[in-house]
Amino acid sequence: MLVHRDEQLAHLRWAFHACEKHGHGQVALVTGAVGSGKTQVLETFGEWAATAGGQVLSAAGSRAEQGLHFGVLGQLLHSARLKPEGIREVEELIREVALAVPTAEARSGAAPETLAEALTADGLWAPLLRTAFDTFLALAGRGPLVLAVDDLQHTDAASLHCLLYVTRRLRNARIMVLLSEATTLRPAHPLFHAELRSLPRFTRVTLPLLTADSVSRLLGEEAGTPDVRGDGAGAPDVREEAGRILRVTGGNPLLSQALVDERAHRGTDSAPDTGARAGDTFERAVLDCLYRHEPGVRLVAQALAALDRPASPELLGQLLDVLPDSTVPAVRVLEGAGLVHAGRLRHPRIVLAVRSDMPAEERRRLHQRAAEVLHENGAEASVVAEHLVASAWTDGAWVVPVLRDAAAHALSTGRPDHAAACLRLGGRAETDKDRRNSLMAMLITARWQVNPLAVTGQVSQLVEAARADESSPSTAVSAVPYLLWQGRAEEAAEAISGCGAGDHGPASNELRLTRLLIALSHPDYLGTVREDPSSWTRAATAPDSASPLLQAVSVLGNALMPTGGVDTVAAAEQLLERHHTDSGSLGLLTAPLLALLCAGPADRVAVWGERLLARQGVQHTPAWRGVIRAIHAEATLRLGDMDAAERGARLALEDLPAPAWGVAVGGPLGTLITCTTESGRLFEAERWLSQPVPAGVFRTPVGAHYLIARGRHHLAMGQHQAAAADLHRSGELVRSWGIDVAGLVPWRLELARVQLSLGHRTHAAQLLQEQLQVSRGLDDRTRGRALRLLASTATPVLRRKLLSKAVTVLQACSDQQELARALSDTSQTLPQTGDAPRARLFVRRAGRLAQASGRAPALPQQVQRRSAPSDAAPTGGSSSDASSDGFESRDQDGLLSEAERRVAVLAARGRTNRQISNELYITVSTVEQHLTRVYRKLDVKSRTDLPNRLMALAEPMA
């Protein structure tokens, strides 16, 4: 599509009309960058001129035919479609002069500006020039003649001399000479241009790059909706898309059209600057644009592609081994074509296109040279390392330290993939054994964050290296976290058994951290840290810890082994607040996040989990992302949102497949099993249970969590003995380890459910009372569930009180399913205590919650019968009860509207109708109407009954 060229075409049409009306010849030169649409302007104008009564002769210069004398002149003559005899004389003269050109070139030294002088001295030019001009003049007699020559910069010198002869004689000829020329490194044919500029009727037309409005118009014409000025419904989307295209192409028409074509082929929903695939339309357009420039321009573009960052002329000159000033024109040409902006290639897709066109060896050589030049100029290690990795060059003595520093920076900024690439190259070049082991430890850290399965062999190598060299304890310590992840606790304990350190310093902190990690992940070793708990409780509360990682793990230790004097929730949130914006800190933040979960406030865990998962760069660390998702999923499960919990657990297992989780696999699997079991999808839960888990899982706290989930599934399947065995085992594990906190595994509650299903009410009551006494980490959902189950073991009067507490607690935790169960149980208890009318209100609310949650189990049949809208009114009730049932079935937010609720609350507080009218700024009549509807809906006879009815509905009494 030809857009944003109306003004330029108008200039050319004006020149044509001047030539036609006044008989004065015109010369126009169209200039612009490669891809700016010069050829299209010439063709469009030529088509218009032909329809306006003119004759158009066209030719195009070519780099391949630049040495072919009179090539462009021959094209002009043949495009006139004259009979052979009409141009026979000109052709014979062209052949005669062409034969003499080699001799003239030898005398002139092949300089184009002196070639004409040599031929003129021989008297060869005059007949040819006169005959050619006479031929053009004869054609102009039929109507205005347009001589259009494209790509003037590639036109042969002989044809240029003929064109100059014609342009000097256009004063009274109806001939328009139209030329186009692309921007080049150096002005092509300077003498020719000097003469053109001296002509009296010379016009220069420059084609600028496209603007956002131009690209919008281009998009609209492509879609068949040319009106994109902001009036149409789709205009904002078009303008936004145009802005994206402009950022990629810089307004180059050739590149812009390529993106529009790609967009048309793959659909309008895909943005042009997302992703890059070599060989696409856009990449081909970039290469077409480059190959139409001089070789020097392509070399600079390749150097910029290798650097992929802003480059000064000095840097480019060093990289290409040329004078810095010689790179300036090439950069200017690339900027004019829209390929370069602010000293670098404009977009990653342009970089990819240029790199993909370079031979592999040339690309490697450029990256090697870039690494050397950047290092010499003091560039950052991470910048130099990119080119070292791309070139795989390790010969310099400075290479390995640079790679190590770059890897450390990449790890600290959350890019383990970059760190691993640097460390692999550095490991091959390092010759010192200790430094090589240090690089291997860093490589394990980096690769584990991307794929834990990839480091199994390297961890074993590191352990062997530590055993072979006992003088380097840091090698052994660095292997411990990955041994623990794989369940190799004995090897981890053995690795640090011979390590000793003083009471202070980094080495001491690292050793204390390692011992605490072993103890918390495999509590069989908790005795080693329980002997001196103050050594890690001090770290948990230190305001400015020398080791944030030690502080984070110490907070988790305090959550599992409360020692008093430490507010776990406050300490964990302080750590999260302090470090959640730090790059590369996801590993540090998982410990306080898990500590929060064990301490009880699942709502805070959900909030922090969402914040961490929304961080930029989290996609680069699948391992930590999966761990945080698993913790977040368990928190949302405790909040009663099973859909979100199941979705999170599934995503965690997509981030890391089950084998990559090591002994931690019980975490997401346990959450997923619980979600599918509670949703009634028992066969799906069975499928997740069939996933193999390492035997070492049951030596970790995660194993106790998994046993709880498996026990709940056994109970749902009616396998009471298997359920009791799993739950007993879970309880025995946490009690033997001394980490029996309710926030870890509420095993007593789940075991009580088994006992209740077996009819053992006394044993169940004992377990539930013990569960409620384990206050550490007892969240509202677990407390509410325990109170509801305990109510089923009590007398009717005590059962009513316990259920009232359960309803209050479960309302606070937003678990709609458990609240529906508690309301259902209350509705069955009230008739036993002589309050049958209130039971209807509870059962209605329970039915609405069960329907809204979509996953709550079916209510008992007697409750369903009571809550059915078609039921008859209770004995003694008025006929209005039936109509109120129908109204309530349509009320999605509660029995009362907001206005009715406000009036009912004030009436329950003892306000008169007049007082309510004054307080709410409504009439007394409106108050009476609201109260009439309230009485009917709540089935009360007077306002003295309102407080009890409102409490039954759990309406807020603000």
UniProtKB/TrEMBL annotation:
Sorted UniProt keywords: ATP-binding, Nucleotide-binding
Region entry Disordered, spans: 852-894
Source species, domain of life: Bacteria
UniProt entry tagged with the keyword ATP-binding: yes
Compositionally biased tracts (Low complexity): 867-886
Keyword Cell membrane: no
SUPFAM superfamilies, per database record: C-terminal effector domain of the bipartite response regulators, P-loop containing nucleoside triphosphate hydrolases
Alphabetical list of InterPro entries matching this protein: AAA_16, P-loop_NTPase, Sig_transdc_resp-reg_C-effctor, Tscrpt_reg_LuxR_C, WH-like_DNA-bd_sf
Transmembrane segments: none
Pfam family, one: AAA_16
UniProt cross-references to Gene3D superfamilies, sorted A to Z: Winged helix-like DNA-binding domain superfamily/Winged helix DNA-binding domain
Name of protein: LuxR family transcriptional regulator
Highest classification ranks of the organism: Bacteria, Bacillati, Actinomycetota, Actinomycetes, Kitasatosporales
